[in-house]
Amino acid sequence: MLRLPEGMERVWLMRAKGMREVEIAEALGVSRQAVNKALKDARVKLFEAFFGIAEVFGFEVIRVNAEKGFMVARGKCLDKNVRVYAFYFPGKGIRAFFGEDLPEYVIEHAVEMGIIRKPEREELIKALES
User: Fold this and answer.
1) DSSP letter string over 64-114?
2) From CA 83, how far away is CA 99, in angstroms rounded?
3) What pLDDT does 1 receive?
């Protein structure tokens, strides 16, 4: 499964957690332009990965947010239409989940990434779908 290169992932993760480009550049001792390029390249790679997964499995993409690292899609599972929620996990790559019964670690990841503020499944589903 796709994983961002380590340096690019570090920059992407810092930005996803709310740091500004100039703060990331200072923290890593690189130029703001280098941070900007790494973020642009990370977004492209994540978009390609999410759309590639959707194409391979025949999912209809509803929403992709490469900045926060998630995709919402519609797919078929045992002849039923289901929601597919896919997330990029730093160091691990993309993991996809069918339906709204998301594991606790996904909810914790969503809080860490700033997708939601409170660790509540209903809040996560609402944030992903809006």
Assistant:
1) EETTTTEEEEEEEETTEEEEEEEEEETTTEEEEEESS---HHHHHHHHHTT
2) 5
3) 53
